[in-house]
Design a protein that fits this description.
It is found in: Cytoplasm. With 195 residues, the chain is α/β, with parallel strands linked by helices. The protein contains 6 helices and 7 strands; from the N terminus they run E-H-E-E-E-H-E-E-H-E-H-H-H. Helix 1 packs across helix 5, helix 2 crosses helix 3 and helix 5 packs across helix 6.
């Protein structure tokens, strides 16, 4: 990983107002918070079908490109690889921020590489990047109650009880992204996995 190479932080979600509050869109929520921390605004990058914001995380930190794909989740990889190539971002400096069924609601986990766990956004990214060795910030949404289908669960809004904690969850996920950019994945794991 090159010290002067930029970072590409991909907030995964679905475009459109009807999806804005969905569990599946927590990646967009984290990207929005990171943009405000950087004092950056999202603008439309038409050729890449995405919204992009640029800035720096941390005092004098590396350049960070925030990306919210405007394709649907299962086509996220195309915009990601386009921007990674355009900004010359190595796969090691790509971070996917996404909802994770296998992490309890309210918890955030960082890791590098691994499987996609049935997540269509990650599957599309891995295929387009021809690699699974990017970092992931897994934002816990927990498992669906009863017999609810996982697909229906992630495409529904956070519950009223969850919404009371949602700002804290999004804030923690943004902290984990910042820690990865400034200090690395292992450091972020050591700091945040006990919380």
């Amino acid at each position: 990983m090159s010290d002067d190479a930029p970072w590409l932080v991909v907030g995964l979600g679905n475009p459109g107002r009807e999806y804005a509050g969905n569990r599946h869109n927590v990646g967009f929520m984290v990207a929005d918070l990171l943009a405000s921390r950087m004092g950056a605004r999202f603008g439309r990058a038409k050729r890449a079908q995405t919204e992009v914001a640029e800035g720096r995380l941390g005092f004098g930190g590396p350049k960070v490109i925030l990306l919210k794909p405007l394709t649907y989740m299962n086509l996220s990889g195309g915009p990601v690889v386009s921007l990674a190539q355009f900004f010359k971002v190595p796969v090691a400096n790509v971070i996917a921020v996404h909802d994770e069924l296998d992490v309890p609601f309210g918890q955030v986990r960082a890791k590098r590489g691994g499987g996609e766990g049935g997540h269509n956004g990650l599957r599309s990214m891995s295929k387009s990047l021809a690699s699974k060795e990017y970092a992931r910030v897994r934002v816990g949404v927990g498992r669906p109650p009863g017999r609810q289908e996982p697909a229906d669960y992630v495409l529904s809004d956070f519950s009223a009880a969850e919404r009371k904690e949602l700002d804290f969850l999004v804030d923690r996920a943004a902290d984990v992204v910042e820690a990865i950019v400034v200090e690395g994945v292992e450091w972020a794991q050591n700091k945040y996995h006990g919380i």
